[in-house]
Specification:
- The complex is a heterodimer of chains A (about 260) and B (about 200).
- Chain A is about 30% helix and about 15% strand.
- Chain A has about 260 residues and is α+β, with helices and mostly antiparallel strands.
- Chain A is elongated.
- Chain B contains nine helices and two strands, in the order E-H-H-H-H-H-H-H-E-H-H.
- The chains are: A alpha+beta (about 260), B mainly alpha (about 200).
- Chains A and B meet through helix 3 and helix 7 of A and helix 1, helix 2, helix 6 and helix 8 of B.
- Bound molecules: protoporphyrin IX containing FE and iron/sulfur cluster (3 copies).
């Protein structure tokens, strides 16, 4: 996959918070508008929704002169190399990986179990009125046709750069950027060049599939299958070695058919 | 004098088989959710979404009926005495062919422990099941933990049930009749549950 893998490099330093990406995504994916309220911040909407696959997180910080400065972070599905959502999804084909490494989905196959919500390290999947998964699909249709995703195309400052993942990373490295997501979870499909610590952007320092999800899917599941057959095997073994507790007097009452 | 004594009332028997039917439905509809190795089991229910629906309905029925079963013999199952200690020390005589005699009441300690386990497992599965049912209404960590506990309890319940079925059928000939028509043979009762037999004789 390594070389064919497409991805984003999001250079947060370039972002001016115009939210063209939010709008372009809605337009291409035909997503309805979400009514919002003024909540005393420029950040809007304040969370991903079933109709909002990416958004700009506005992080307010005090600057040296006592004023306010912003960090802008484009939040979306990370298209993880080792994707928690795909690990737990019980419905084959609901979530799938394209040959470009995109974690795409087919809503017709989603069975609304919502396991992917619990397994995603970035809390990305959302559910609309139809109770099916929705999230950024990395414009898999556009990418398959050789086009750039809508959000990258619309970005006026080249904050959102799309291309071959390895090339994007090499270029950012050459420019001495601090990268996030290069190797975590077998490499995120969305790599960030950050201006500070990941925590400052609301990103986990070491993103990982939640421990309980790992124990559930990678430990209990195989051990459970082993345990099931083990218990059946143990019972059969007991039957042929120690044997059943027969009722001794049975022979007398039946008369004749002694076999012990 | 009849060769048989009554072991379980009609109510107890119907309840037991109701619990069993719900349990089997839960296992079959849950297998596809447990692992993609078992996706084929969804087909029994007409797809994954329907399997989830069956699982929810059977889950509610199992929870209610299993707790009822537990409480209907709660006292017999949760009290252990000196004779039980002896049974436990001798592993119930299950590890050798030598004839072992234990002074068991209506249930032996192994059955009591199974009864208690199923009671606790029912609570655990039911409670975590609610969190998994509506994952967006509860904190993420709680739902994540619930998925883990639900899976683990499921595995244990299936394993213990395998043992239970073995011991209640071919492992102890004559036992199943008690749960089928309610009567067991006197020699069975004298052999397996002498203390109980003396009470009902
Ligand atoms: C095909 C499956 C099953 C068979 C053949 C079976 C058979 C039996 C029999 C014969 C008894 C009476 C034991 C005696 O007379 O001492 C019994 C008791 C009992 N069964 Fe089952 N059973 C099955 C499934 C289940 C399941 C799925 C559960 C619960 C999840 C369950 C829970 C119990 C409990 C709690 C008792 C009370 C006594 C004890 O703890 O052994 N059974 N079963
Ligand atoms: S960010 Fe979440 S939804 Fe996206 S691929 Fe990773 S685990 Fe799946
Ligand atoms: S909610 Fe849908 S996409 Fe998510 S794990 Fe369940 S079936 Fe898969
Ligand atoms: S890649 Fe496509 S689906 Fe994903 S945020 Fe950008 S425009 Fe939306």
């Amino acid at each position: 996959m390594a070389d064919a893998r497409k991805g984003f490099l999001i250079d947060t330093a370039r972002c001016i918070g115009c939210r063209s990406c939010q709008v372009a995504c809605k337009q291409w994916n035909k997503l309805a508008a979400d009514p919002t309220k003024n909540q005393g911040t420029f950040e809007n909407p304040r969370d991903l929704t079933p109709n909002l696959f990416n958004r700009i997180r506005f992080v307010e910080q005090a600057d040296d002169a006592g004023g306010v400065k912003w960090l802008f972070m484009n939040e979306r599905c990370m298209h993880c190399g080792d994707a928690g959502c795909m690990k737990v999804c019980p419905s084959p084909g609901a979530l799938y990986r394209t040959k470009e490494g995109i974690v795409a989905y087919n809503r017709d196959k989603c069975i609304s179990c919502k396991y992917c919500v619990s397994a995603c390290p970035f809390n990305v999947p959302r559910y609309g009125a139809d109770d099916r998964v929705s999230k950024c699909n990395l414009c898999a249709d556009r990418v398959a046709g050789g086009m750039a995703p809508a959000c990258a195309k619309a970005c006026p400052t080249q904050t959102i750069q799309f291309g071959n993942r390895s090339e994007l990373i090499a270029r950012a490295r050459a420019a001495k950027k601090t990268l996030f997501g290069e190797n975590d979870l077998m490499g995120l499909g969305v790599v960030y060049a950050l201006e500070g610590k990941p925590e400052a952007y609301g990103l986990p320092e070491k993103p990982a599939i939640p421990m309980s999800i790992f124990l559930w899917k990678d430990v209990i599941k195989p051990l459970g299958i082993l345990g099931f057959w083990g218990s059946i095997g143990a019972m059969l073994f007991h039957y042929v070695t120690v044997g059943p507790k027969k009722l001794e007097e049975e022979n007398e009452t039946k008369g004749g058919t002694t076999h012990e | 004098m009849s060769n048989y004594v009554e072991r379980f009332s009609t109510r107890e028997r119907v309840l037991h088989w109701f619990v069993t039917a719900a349990f089997i439905t839960l296992v079959l509809s849950g297998l596809g959710l447990y692992s993609r190795l078992f996706t084929g089991y969804f087909d029994f229910f007409g797809g994954g979404a329907n399997a989830i629906l069956f699982h929810k309905i059977a889950g509610v029925l199992f929870f209610a009926s299993s707790l009822l079963l537990f409480f209907s013999h709660g006292k017999e199952v949760t009290t252990f005495d000196e004779d039980d200690r002896e049974w436990l020390a001798g592993r119930g005589g299950y590890l050798s062919r030598d004839e072992a005699h234990f002074n068991c009441g209506k249930f032996n300690p192994g059955q009591k422990m199974f009864g208690i386990f199923i009671g606790v497992a029912t609570l655990a599965l039911g409670l975590t099941g609610i969190f998994i049912w509506a994952p967006l209404a509860f904190p993420r960590w709680l739902v994540q933990l619930s998925l883990l506990v639900h899976g683990l309890t499921f595995v244990l319940a299936v394993m213990f049930t395998v043992i239970h079925v073995y011991l209640a059928t071919i492992g102890n000939p004559g036992t199943l009749e008690g749960m089928l028509y309610g009567y067991v043979r006197r020699i069975w009762a004298r052999k397996h549950h002498p203390k109980w037999y003396r009470e009902v004789e």
